[in-house]
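Hello support,

Our group uses your service weekly, and this is the first time we've seen a run hang past the timeout. The protein is HAD family hydrolase. I'm not sure whether the cause is the sequence or the server load. Input pasted verbatim:
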Amino acid sequence: MERAAVFDVDGTLVDTNHLHVTAWWEALRQAGHLVPMHAVHRAVGLPSTDLVAHLLGDDRDTGRDAELSAAHKALYGQYFDRLPALPDAGRLLKRLHRDGWTVVLATSAGGAELEALRRAIDADEAIDATASADDVDQGKPAAEPVEHALELAGVPAERAVFVGDTVWDMRAGSRAGVRCVGVLCGGIPRRDLEEAGADAVYDDPAALLAALPRSPLA
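Update from on-call engineer: The timeout came from a worker crash unrelated to the input. Re-ran successfully.
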């Protein structure tokens, strides 16, 4: 029977969360908002508009949301040619593909950013489909990105596992009805991931690959 392994990308397969933190912090600073980096870090993984709302509140000048998002995109784009994959990220996807899993990426990235992330992972032959921000109306923690990934895979929720690094990932996967696996390489504590719905938590893709026979992806 078909099985789907759905993966978040930023902080899960590619070591980009703190690059996003720096880019968002600078974009906000340039617009006159002094937001602590730890607060930005906890918001990474949300779609841009939701991230800004989470950090600045509903009483902000929403007319400047697009400006903030564009500034973040420009600042983060400086790293596109050197985004670092996390240890064994590509090997993990290739192994799952060989084992018969349908591998799908579910990410808030799109366009040139997604292309840069896929270059970093270097496992295109193992990736069957990608559900990007361009394909859904609501990002994580809504279930829609994971549900769309399952549609692309042609697999029901009970035969799928979602791997991510943030509480937003775990909540999205849980709402979509799939088993959730957390990784710590995005910088979110184990307890937070478990409380948000993670069935199992590993240090990074390399640790998950090493423990694969005893994991939800066995």
